[in-house]
TrEMBL record:
UniProt-recorded Gene Ontology molecular function terms: catalytic activity
Name the UniProt record assigns to this protein: Endonuclease/exonuclease/phosphatase domain-containing protein
Signal peptide: none
A Pfam family per the record: Exo_endo_phos
Endonuclease/exonuclease/phosphatase domain segment(s): 16-219
Species of origin: Graphocephala atropunctata
Highest taxon, organism lineage: Eukaryota
UniProt-listed Gene3D superfamilies: Endonuclease/exonuclease/phosphatase
Coiled coil: none
InterPro entries: Endo/exonu/phosph_ase_sf, Endo/exonuclease/phosphatase
Length: 373
């Protein structure tokens, strides 16, 4: 069984990625989430400011932006809207930026998902970790803490890595790291290392980690897969699902509605309410003659030629990371610019097609207007 294939098995998939600036990578990022069927994306160094809007279609967003003269730092969590979840309050932290959500699982339990980032020049403080792991339920913290230790596969050990290990040894928190470097500096004389890690507590399930040579950052995205499954939210029942002929509705409603003679007990009142509701639904379905179209975001499913170009860029990036030849870096830069240009052009074409298919006789015009406002 492939733990990363949640299309078949419904496993929870979490992305752990240091974006080093998310705003300019939105098209690539959105396509990545769809291509890998990511349930929750934890992004560090988002470089967003509080006044900026940044949304991904189909995902709810929870952000903790850094307030600074220049856009830097910051964390964000993107979770599929169809997953049962809510935001989680975190106490004040000193040297760590973090945001959190609570996700309901199909086995009836809940799991806390935390996204955290610590700048390299800041010292780890014990109180921050005590606050982050103050829950009694399963907790998963993912992110870039800039803590290196040879115990979890890093090339070297730094002081913050030793402090983190001391905290882990004195608590019930465990650490999990990928088996290959996630940070590849752009400088030729710098060596790659592991920076993007996972801390977890009260978690009785294995964690599978896969490092992918994708996206545009000095950090590679890490996809985490868990064998437990998230709980889906129940879709609300909609009375009106299309265009309704109200004259037909009125006639049908009058034909099937039976007005009660008297309502002198609670049982009769409840029965009358149920009958009225049933007649309302039957008449509405009978009078609906044109179903509303479901929105289809074609941009999230680019054509094969763009997907092949993205794969070529991934191969070039992996080759450059291994051999570090200058001509490989130039080729990678050329492919990166070409992918961005192709995605931008495809996004414009898709949006023009979307505007051309808007129909004033259904909800598409209202949906388009609501997106602009």
């Amino acid at each position: 069984m492939d733990p990363f294939n949640n299309t078949m098995f419904g496993n929870l998939k979490i992305l752990n990625w240091n974006a080093n600036g998310l705003k300019t990578q939105k098209p690539l990022f959105a396509a990545f989430l769809v291509r890998h069927n990511i349930d929750i994306a934890c992004v560090t160094e988002s470089h967003l400011i509080p006044s900026e809007r940044f949304n991904i279609s189909g995902y709810s967003t929870y952000r903790e932006d850094r307030v600074a003269p220049i856009a830097s730092g910051g964390v964000a969590i993107f979770i599929k809207k169809k997953l049962d979840h809510h935001s989680l309050f975190l106490p004040q932290l000193f040297n760590i930026e973090a945001t959190a959500i609570k996700v309901k699982l199909r086995n009836g339990t809940c799991c806390n998902i935390l996204c955290a980032y610590k700048s390299p020049n800041r010292r780890i403080m014990l109180n921050d970790f005590l606050s982050l792991f103050s829950f009694n339920s399963p907790t998963i913290l993912v992110g870039d803490l800039n803590c290196k230790h040879q115990l979890w596969g890093c090339r070297v050990t730094n002081p913050n890595g030793s402090r983190l290990l001391n905290f882990i040894n004195g608590s019930n928190v465990n650490i999990s790291a990928p088996d290959e470097p996630t940070f590849h500096p752009w400088q030729y004389n710098s060596l790659p290392d592991i920076l993007d890690i996972v801390l977890h507590e009260n978690l009785n399930a294995p964690i599978f980690q896969q490092v992918l040579p994708e996206l545009n950052s000095d950090h590679l995205p890490v996809v985490l897969s868990f064998l437990f499954k998230p709980q889906l939210t129940s879709e609300p029942q909609r009375l009106i699902t299309g265009k309704v002929d109200w004259d037909t509705f009125q006639k049908k409603f009058d034909d099937i509605l039976k007005a009660p003679v008297c309502l002198n007990s609670s049982e009769l009142i409840e029965s009358a309410v149920e009958h009225f509701t049933s007649c309302l639904c039957i008449a509405t379905r009978h009078a609906t003659y044109k179903q509303f179209r479901k929105p289809n975001n074609k941009f999230l499913h680019p054509p094969t030629r763009i997907l092949d170009l993205i794969k070529s860029k991934h191969v070039a990036r992996r080759q450059w990371q291994r051999l570090r030849q200058p001509w490989m870096k130039r080729r990678l830069n050329d492919l990166t610019r070409q992918v961005k240009r192709e995605l931008d052009e495809y996004r414009i074409i898709s949006y023009k097609s979307y505007l051309a298919n808007i129909d004033q006789n259904d909800s598409s015009l209202w949906q388009a207007t609501k997106r602009v406002l």
